[in-house]
Amino acid sequence: MTDEKTKNRSPGRDRAVKALPWLVLLAFLAAVQYGMGWEKVLQPWLTFHWPQLLLALGLMVLSYAVRTWRLVDYFPDEIGGRYPAALRLTLLHNLMNNLLPARTGEASFPLLMRRYFTVPYARSVSALLWFRLLDLHTILCFAIYPLLVVTPFRRLVAPVLLLWLLLPLLLYWLRNRVELYFAGRDGRLSTVMQQAMYGLPDSPLQFFKSWGLTWLNWLVKLGTLAWVLEQFVPAVSANMLIAGVIGGELTSVLPFHAPVGVGTYEAGVIAALSGVALLPTATQGAINLHLFVLGSALLGGVLGWLIPVSGTSGTEVSTAPATTGIKTDDDA
Fold this sequence. Notes:
Elements: H1 2-35, H2 38-42, H3 50-74, H4 76-79, H5 83-99, H6 108-117, H7 121-148, H8 157-173, H9 175-182, H10 188-199, H11 204-232, H12 238-250, H13 264-273, H14 279-306
């Protein structure tokens, strides 16, 4: 009886779950209009000069290119010299990650890797997990200094940073032991760790190249976004600007957020800037920074869509975005 009732309620519940993110989006748009007014929020863009905007967009595209370099270096045999196809994949994957909620856009990566380079799903998922672990480790490393330096624990910055930097090296050195420890164990953590160990590079050189390219990517991206944020939130130190950017970027791993991440991204930026900027100023800066991130992703997606690539059989692949087969609310 209970199962039958649950089954009968499922369609309505599914519709409510699908509608909720869109309701959050509408509520956010209405709240901004009521609290500040979209005209006032967007007004600072009028002071932007085209060379500044083009430079910032160019640097974001450069970060996408570095990310593609990391991908090509990880799959040298599968990708070979087909850098344009890898760049297209990176740009489309990034667009889906930014548009789809709760990182569901990540599912496009193994599908596109299979389509363009015939890489098995298990291998591409493991590689993606390794990339994301590197990304998370690097972005948290950038967060340690601005977060600790304003607390009584500022003297711990150097040792904490050193220990944090050693974690990837320790993981790589102990990878066989970690894999043996989780082998045969049940649970989500065991599955994730086994996939992560499977995704580790085969050689130390490849490991350090992946790590170095991850740092280069985030140096370019965080530096660019911090500079953009400064245009809307002036008179704030570089440390706190970077902390604001990191606060927004980290919200992308949340299990729930509205389409295109509205609301949660802004909340992360505002939380990081709460001690150094007035709420209206921080809110305006957070919204405009997020608009820039989305605009960069859309620009990258258009560029990726325009890149002609050849399929694995040598035939021309359609320049239309790849179909991921993902059924989501608004479709990274």
